[in-house]
Design brief:
Elements lengths: L2 H14 L3 E5 L2 H4 L25 H4 L2 H6 L1 H11 L9 H11 L3 E6 L5 H5 L4 E3 L2 E8 L5 E2 L1 H5 L14 E5 L8 H13 L2 E5 L8 H5 L6 E5 L14 E3 L3 H7 L3
Parallel strand pairs: 1-2, 1-7, 2-3, 7-8, 8-9
Antiparallel strand pairs: 4-5, 4-6
Helix pairs in contact: 6-11
This protein binds zinc ion.
Length: 249
């Protein structure tokens, strides 16, 4: 099949389905200019000498924010500021599918808040989001600007506590509500679209195992291996925004 007919097939599947769930990863955000973790200018590649000898896993860990908060926030501000990023055609198409009553939920591994910005309402952010921030001591909420624009090395609440992002750091548990909601949505969907994720990174593969529906579409720039057999799965090897645009979504 050529690209155009593959994308037509995607549209046909969506038309035939009753409740679609989207499960997405970093590839959904790259078209909004947010680098993938492992890309050349992503989190795992920094030339900043201040971070020499630190691994990205440590820099984004609970240990780092507790033991060396100055280092944590320096890195966080440099790498995870998505405030100016805009939703791309994929985010917008998913929001429209939800408004049309076709899509029931978006499950995302991304922490940039772009699905919400695009207008999606039922979004399960299984790694949290940089858009929500709170005081680790009293729980008071703060806007993202409070951390990114702070002149202090370590942003603090009026109570003295550290203000942090509601993102799951290495060494922390995934947010229970989002995980439960995601699993509920995936297990009751009759179509699952997996997009922009290699499925190699935990816990992506473990989530999609809950899918019991009829239609499965996988869209990723690079070829991927499904962690289970699914006869009739539609596999599109192309950027997700392009797939949705060609499908007329
Ligand atoms: Zn506080």
């Amino acid at each position: 099949m050529d690209e155009a007919s593959e994308c037509r097939k995607l549209k046909e599947m969506i038309d035939a389905a009753k409740s679609v769930v989207f499960f997405g990863g970093a590839g959904v955000s790259t078209e909004s200019g947010i680098p993938d973790f492992r890309s050349a200018d992503g989190l795992y590649n920094t030339k900043d000498v201040r971070f020499d000898g630190y691994s990205p896993e440590y820099l984004l860990s609970r240990d780092c924010i507790e033991d060396e908060p100055e280092v944590f926030f320096e890195y966080y501000r440099q790498k995870l500021d998505a405030r100016r990023a805009k939703p791309n055609p994929a985010h917008l198409a998913l929001a429209r599918l939800e408004q049309a009553g076709k899509l029931t939920a978006v499950v995302t591994q991304n922490i940039d808040g772009l699905h919400t910005k695009a207008g999606s309402r039922n979004v399960f952010e299984i790694h949290g989001t940089t858009q929500r921030n709170y005081c680790a001591k009293c729980g008071r909420e703060y806007p993202a600007d409070y951390i990114f624009d702070s002149k202090e090395a370590v942003p603090r609440c009026s109570c003295g506590g550290v203000v942090r992002c509601d993102v799951t750091l290495y060494g922390e548990q995934l947010p229970e509500d989002a995980v439960e909601g995601a699993i509920r949505a995936i297990s009751s969907a009759d179509m699952l679209i997996i997009g922009g994720t290699s499925l190699r990174v935990y816990p992506a593969a473990s989530f999609i195992r809950y899918f019991r529906g009829r239609y499965l579409a996988v869209i990723n720039k690079e070829p991927i291996d499904l962690p289970f057999r699914f006869p009739g799965a539609l596999v599109l090897t192309m950027p997700i925004g392009r797939a949705f645009t060609l499908a007329g979504l």
